[in-house]
Amino acid sequence: MIDNLKVEYLTKIEELEEKLNDAIHQKQLLSLRLDSQLALQQEDARKHQTLMKQEMETILLRQKQLEETNHQLRERAGDIRRSLRDLELTEDGYEKLKSLPEDQLSIPEYVSVSIVSCIGLKYSPVEGQIGLEFTFFMTTLFFLCFGFVAKQ
């Protein structure tokens, strides 16, 4: 009977050792799988971080370019505003400019010709220009259009 109990306990010990070894092996497999998943997630996070950094650098570069372009456009708008302040046009000058294609005219010349054509100001032989009304009109137009735009 003791031998039977001894054999029975030895068998149970072997079974438990086998289960323990299986559990240890299963734990090692799960640990390896967890490590590999963690490594994959870390690699994905690194790739995502690198991509985000590149996108941010691209955005910052584009922003810098746009700010520079904006600065240049503001300077150009200021130059155009200054060139439109004191427009003077003689009758001969008006006729000469009116005969040229629009794409050959400077902005001040184009504006002068367009305004004279639109409002139909008459030439004043006393002044030798298109008249004080034109200068007053241009100054008023300038401040209405460009003064308002510059504040926005």
TrEMBL record:
Keywords: Coiled coil, Membrane, Transmembrane, Transmembrane helix. GO terms for biological process: cilium assembly. The keyword Signal does not apply. One of its GO terms (cellular component) is microtubule organizing center. InterPro entries: PIBF1. The chain crosses the membrane at residues 130-150. Residues 6-83 form a coiled coil. PANTHER family: PROGESTERONE IMMUNOMODULATORY BINDING FACTOR 1 (PTHR18950:SF0), PROGESTERONE-INDUCED BLOCKING FACTOR 1 (PTHR18950). This is Progesterone immunomodulatory binding factor 1.
